[in-house]
Amino acid sequence: MIVLWERSVRATHDFLTSGDIDGLVPLVQGIDFNTFEVYCAFDEMDEMVGILGVADHKLEMLFLEPKQIGKGIGKQLMQFAMKDLAVDKVDVNEGNPKATEFYKRFGFKVYDRTPLDDYGNPYPILKMRL
């Protein structure tokens, strides 16, 4: 999951430098994935192509294998999250407008903005909800 996360972030988070991402890897490796619901999507070759994490009706993570972006896997994961897991909130990096637009297509709207991310870095977060 960490390898998929890193590939996805390197492909989609243009506002981060390679060094920024290198610095985030240990933080992500330290996440206790047992503290929230995590689902993985696999392709027909049984390779992991997506990760979805949810806690308290909030989407905590949605990352896709870069070569799978635009093929409908993210849409399927979001539909599952909203229908089966009652997701109604998500935080998204302001510097990732494609992700913001993705969530807007599902009806999410920005209701707040924080100047720092969860780790205190200067990457503004848009808080979105249905």
Describe it.
The longest helix is centred in the first third of the chain and has 12 residues. Helix 1 runs antiparallel to helix 2. It is built from four helices and six strands. It is of the alpha+beta class. A hairpin with a 5-residue loop joins strand 1 and strand 2.
Write the layout of secondary structure elements.
Blueprint (H helix, E strand, L loop, with lengths): L1 H11 L5 H12 L7 E6 L5 E8 L2 E7 L8 H12 L4 E5 L3 H8 L4 E6 L10 E5 L1
Parallel strand pairs: 3-4
Antiparallel strand pairs: 1-2, 2-3, 4-6, 5-6
Oligomer: single chain
Largest sheet: spatial strand order: 1-2-3-4-6-5
Give the ordered list of helices and strands.
HHEEEHEHEE
List low-confidence stretches.
none
* Distance linking N and C termini: 28 Å
Superfamily (CATH H level) name:
Gcn5-related N-acetyltransferase (GNAT)
* Shape descriptor: globular
Write a concise keyword list for the protein shown above.
130 residues; alpha+beta; Aminopeptidase; 6-stranded mixed beta sheet; 4 helices; 28% strand; globular
